[in-house]
């Protein structure tokens, strides 16, 4: 019997007449992707949420009264996160003030579509929604940026700008924490990528469940140990709940500008390992957690950007360097391998100068640049 990855219907059929290993009473409906246990619908629903609750409690992710922004992209992970967190908040009495925070990168045909999901979630879960856009923050949409730089390095802009945009949105909402839908697969993939790139600074912190505690707004990942496959099937097994159908309506459109082939290989490699041994994902995370950085390795020193005040290990933060390049008609400035963690780069080709765009509001203090 395979795990539930082919879809709930097939796996239910295969689960056949065995009893649930959890309750021992009901018929097993699926094989849990994470543990390969045969389990019934009801128990899957319960263990899925219980494990997330345990992760939250054991890692002291929140305290009563915290204002928490859920980074809501409209994709599967953050849509399920918004639902589960609002349910746990209600049932387990976390006493949190929850908000949805979305960044509109300005990608026509992608983000505009997924933001519709977030707007539905705002109504369904009764959570206030704040949308913050690259256009307003930086004067550029990702559509504009791709026109300027092409499809090769656009993900660098998007990643750097999004980290900062989330911090700025969170500051506007005056929240104490941001939570994101990064799941166990994402984290294992990032461990592997940081090893492959020899990025020791990121390797040392990419498995932290909470990051940015030295900055103004910490971020945490309640799905750190949650498998992507279980997030995908959870809405199908979320029994007798009025939102379960809506939960399946998350946007599954893939970003039109993200070929990101290297990450794609790492992802495929992890999926292959998982097929052979589901624990592989948890073991990669565990290995990442146990890496110890040699005391002789030079680590970047955290400071703040001279221009905008955002946390940075260089004089200017990466977002300011990238924005400078865009505004000066040199979009490749600051893209690529940098000394330390963020900084200058030499591979920019000389391009025709463009008139400087209005230097958008990169002022004020913002949070961490770590994700
Ligand atoms: N545009 C955005 N606005 C707000 N939060 C975002 C946005 N993009 C990503 N995030 C946050 O970062 C997490 C990881 O994003 P990533 O782009 O890796 O997508 P993903 O793994 O497909 O997640 P999802 O299924 O939620 O889109 C998301 O779950 C979400 O919490």
UniProtKB/TrEMBL annotation:
**Gene3D superfamilies given for it?**
HUPs (3.40.50.620)
Extract the ranges annotated as region (Disordered).
339-371
Database matches in Pfam families: ATP_bind_3, zn-ribbon_14
The enzyme's E.C. designation? 2.7.7.-
Where is the protein situated, by its record's location annotation? Cytoplasm
The record's similarity note reads: Belongs to the TtcA family. CTU1/NCS6/ATPBD3 subfamily.
Q: What is this protein called?
A: Cytoplasmic tRNA 2-thiolation protein 1
Give the originating organism: Oryza barthii
Q: What would be the name of the gene that encodes this protein? A: NCS6
